Amino acid sequence: AILPVISKTKHPRAIEASTKYFLTQAIASCLLLFSCTTNAWYTGTWSITQMDDSYTSTTMLIALTMKAGTAPTHFWLPEVMQGSTLTTAMLISTWQKIAPMTLIFLMSNHIQSNVTLMLGLLSTTFGGWGGMNQTQLRKMMAYSSIANMGWTVLALSSQPKASLVSLFIYIITIIPTISMMELMSTKTLQNMTTSWSTSPTTSTTLTLLLLSTAGLPPLTGFIPKLLILNELVIQNLTPIAVAATTASLLSLVFYLRTAYLTALLNSPSSATSTMKWRQKMKTKSTIMTPTALTTMTMLPSMIK
């Protein structure tokens, strides 16, 4: 159903993005069906909660991570989001990830911990490394999605509930972030430099959302990372926690660069330009923004 949404703009880049999305999802679906058939052959049931073979669970995990857009099968996500509109990119990075991540959560007890740790570290590393040199905001958000999904997968081996919290916080943070970009009609970093002169209130809000997505305290995005790191240390996986923290610094670079261009740079503008201090906000931005920034105090009770 997402294919007509991607290609609705009738632009060659949108058609290319929809084709890439279709081919990638078709390959992932074939691999998923193969894994389910193999599991049914071994266990006599089609339920993914009963998987005794490690090979079957690993191949199914790879198929689901390809659908979710995590490393090392993340190659399609930046190109597809770049060829889509900001609204479609928001759907791809949020709604389209719920189904595969739910299936991964259901089969988390049958997945080898070494596999999830490796996939999580690869996603956090590739997501941070790939987004550093990007000037297109949609590609940057794609690599941000890859990095955040890495944290979600990383928590499956130690605390599956923390992975659900991480996914939930990512969704409620990325929706107002992309909505703010659409509201200001910004698609590149160059556009971000002129946003403050036209709408300082929206630019300040976008800066806080970016810092929340980066995981800086005391914003909401800090808590999932703290919970995951705490669980890794409890499970005597301190080297993995250190590696994940180091990889998150790569993501922090382009988050801070975008926030710096948005809030701290005032590009040259004419004296007749007016600041929109009371810019009309869309409903989804108005509702989701306070939630993304101020729900930190309620999160510890969500994982008990």
TrEMBL record:
- Segments forming domain NADH:quinone oxidoreductase/Mrp antiporter transmembrane: 6-251
Check the record and name the InterPro entries matching this protein: Complex_I_Subunit_2 (IPR050175), NADH_UbQ_OxRdtase_chain2 (IPR003917), ND/Mrp_TM (IPR001750)
Reaction(s) catalyzed by this protein?
A: a ubiquinone + NADH + 5 H(+)(in) = a ubiquinol + NAD(+) + 4 H(+)(out)
- Pfam families associated with the record: Proton_antipo_M (PF00361)
- Membrane topology designation: Multi-pass membrane protein
Under the cellular component aspect of Gene Ontology, which terms does the record hold? mitochondrial inner membrane
Please provide, alphabetically and separated by semicolons, the GO molecular function terms listed in this UniProt record. Answer: NADH dehydrogenase (ubiquinone) activity
Q: Which UniProt keywords apply?
A: Electron transport, Membrane, Mitochondrion, Mitochondrion inner membrane, NAD, Respiratory chain, Translocase, Transmembrane, Transmembrane helix, Transport, Ubiquinone
Q: Its principal location?
A: mitochondrion
Offer one example of a GO biological process linked to this entry: mitochondrial electron transport, NADH to ubiquinone
Q: Where in the cell is it found?
A: Mitochondrion inner membrane
TM segment ranges: 21-42, 111-129, 164-184, 240-265
Under Enzyme Commission nomenclature, its number is: 7.1.1.2
Function per UniProt: Core subunit of the mitochondrial membrane respiratory chain NADH dehydrogenase (Complex I) which catalyzes electron transfer from NADH through the respiratory chain, using ubiquinone as an electron acceptor. Essential for the catalytic activity and assembly of complex I.
The family line of this record is:
Belongs to the complex I subunit 2 family.
Which protein are we looking at?
Answer: NADH-ubiquinone oxidoreductase chain 2
Give the originating organism: Diploderma angustelinea (Narrow striped mountain dragon)
Lineage, please? Eukaryota, Metazoa, Chordata, Craniata, Vertebrata
The primary gene name is ND2
